[in-house]
User: Fold this.
Amino acid sequence: ITTLHERLASAIRLYAAERAGGPIAYSPGAYPYFFADLDADGTAGPEEAVYPNRYQSWTPRLLRAAYNFQFVAKDPGRWAHNPHYAIQLLVDSLTDLSESVAIDMTGIVRP
Assistant:
């Protein structure tokens, strides 16, 4: 689950930069969690992780992937509650994003 989650984070950053209109960064402790990545370094620094800098270039595809990413990130018991569902969400999001940007799907199988 952790590996797929990390791969989805990379895929979200790639899709946002190439298709959605600008780089995106995630900050698990700062609402609304997804921010414009002003320096395009892949992380939301303290000056970036503020509400006025929230990410606003959403596409339906990116929004679905970000929702699934956040859902898995915020469920601390995902490994015990329903790991197959968490994996399925991550794989489905990666598959969806791979239809628009080049994502290596080698070895990724839907449970």
User: Anything to note?
Assistant: The first helix runs from residue 2 to 20. The chain has a mean pLDDT of 96. Strands lie at 24-26, 34-36.
